[in-house]
Every structure is written in C-alpha cells, then in structure tokens.
Amino acid sequence: MIAETIVNNESSEIIRMFYTEFDALIPEHLRESSKGDRAIFPAHLHKSIDDMNEWVYDTVNNGVYKTGFAQTQEAYEEHVYPVFKSLDRIEEHLGSTGGPFLFGNHITEADIRLYPTILRFDVAYFTIFKCNLKMIRYEYPRLHDWLRKLYWDNSELTNFGAFRKTVDFQAVCTGMEA
C-alpha cells in the first residue's frame, strides 16, 4: 500500500534513507550495500563522516546563515569567524586524504553535504551574507580543486556529471536576494 505521505523533510536523514529504502527498485550492482569501500557511507568511515558532518553542518552549512542573518555586530562576529576556522580545517583535511575528496578517492556523504554550501560560497554567501573574510577560489586552493572536481567531472564517479547538472547559478544568485 502506498501511503502518499511525507515521512521526513530533514535532508541529512533523507540522504541516509536513499542508501537502503529504495534498493528493491534498482539493480543489485547499483545498491549501496554492493559498493563496499566505494559506498557513499562506507562502514569503515561511519564515525569519521558523522563527526565531520556534525561540525561542518553547524559551522559551515548553517554557519553562513547564522552569519548572514545576524542582527548585531556581536552576533555577526560570533558566527563569521567559526565559518572560516572550519573552512581552514577542511582545507587542511583535504591535504591529508590522499585523494581529491574529503575521505580519499571516492565521494562520500560528507562531500555531498558540503558541496551546495561551497558551490554557493563565492557567488552568494561572500557578498550577500557578508561571509567575506576569504574566498574559496583564491584562499582555499584544495577546497577549490575539490569543488571543481565535483562540478566538472563527467565520469561514472559523479554519475556522469550529476553535481553540475543540479546547479543553476542564476537561481543561486537571485534566490539568495529574495
């Protein structure tokens, strides 16, 4: 029976549901459970990915909004510096992974969750939300390379350009102004 009801609207939980809840609808070789260490959320990285997701969400994904919507200078300063401290941390982390992605040679959930914020950073958050202490393209070379790899890759690694195909830069810029 199909209930035709929304069961969740939290993106971090929905992404995890996609790993298993629709397996019966796709060929076995495409299922997360068949990918082993190349999975989006491989067993050996669960804790590392969860740990990174926690601080990245708080200080980067949500941090840009806390900064942009700050009502006082004190609130702005309370949030803007952690954004850049975390971007510095990600930049350093990318130098230690041995691959182009956050946890090596394969895209993980952490890459997927960070991507929208970093993609929007220079074109929207830097100016509109005044997260303007540094720019990704100039001050974060590893993070910039990471972003370019995800955006421009057309191989099976990115599901043949799925990252780029989901981007509408005009909407990013105008949507942020509304």
What would you note in describing this structure?
- By secondary structure, the protein is mostly helical.
- The protein has one domain (45-177): Up-down Bundle (Glutathione S-transferase Yfyf (Class Pi), Chain A, domain 2).
- 57% of the residues lie in helices and 0% in strands.
- The chain has helices at 11-18, 46-61, 63-68, 73-94, 109-128, 136-139, 141-152, 162-165, 169-177.
- Helix 2 packs antiparallel against helix 4 and helix 5 crosses helix 9.
- The longest helix is centred in the middle third of the chain and has 22 residues, at 73-94.
- It is globular.
- The relative contact order is 0.10.
- The mean pLDDT is 92.
Which features does this protein show?
mainly alpha, Glutathione S-transferase Yfyf (Class Pi), Chain A, domain 2, 178 residues, 57% helix, 0% strand, globular
Summarize the structure.
The protein is mainly alpha-helical and 178 residues long. It is 57% helix and 0% strand.
Proportion of residues in β-strands:
under 5%
Q: What's the domain count?
A: 1
Query: What is the element string, with H for helices and E for strands?
Result: HHHHHHHHH
What is the second-level CATH architecture? Up-down Bundle
End-to-end Cα distance? 40 Å
Mean pLDDT: 92
Radius of gyration: 17 Å
